Amino acid sequence: MEEAPEQAVTNSGSGNAFSHYVRHHLFLLSSLLSVFLVNCISMRDRFNTVVNVLGDCVGLAMIHHLSEKELAVMDHTHEESLNRTAEAAAEDHLSSMESQYALSEIE
After folding, report:
1. What is the pTM of this model?
2. How far apart (Å, rounded) are the C-alpha atoms in residues 100 and 107?
3. Which residues lie below 8 Å from residue 106, measured CB to CB, with a gap of 6+?
4. What ranges in the chain are assigned the alpha helix state H?
């Protein structure tokens, strides 16, 4: 009832071949799945980036539209203060020149 030694070797050899086949295919399958998952994650991240940028643009447009009047008033006020500062600087410069030189020397 015992198997011959040659049959035992061939039976165990076919078992090794099958286990090698299964291990090899499981390795390939796990490699393919990991590549697929990495690609899915990177595509999801790219999609999220596009959505985030689009959301930022929409938010910025809404804020600009809602605060357009206030920004115009601030720009006008800022321009007036710059003009006043430039005029004051010119007057200071002229008054310092007048104090250094006599009016006859300037003309």
Report:
1. 0.42
2. 14
3. 97, 98
4. 5-66, 68-100, 103-106
Cβ(93)–Cβ(85) under 8 Å? Answer: no
Positive/negative CA dihedral, 55, 57, 52, 50: positive
CB 83 within 8 A of CB 75: no
Question: Can you tell me whether residue 39 is helix, strand or coil?
Answer: helix
Contacts of 98 (CB under 8 A, 6+ apart): 106
Q: Tokens for 107, please give them.
A: 């003309």
Chain-centre distance for alpha carbon 77: 35
DSSP state of 102: -
Higher pLDDT, 66 or 1: 66
- Percent residues over pLDDT 70 in the chain: 71
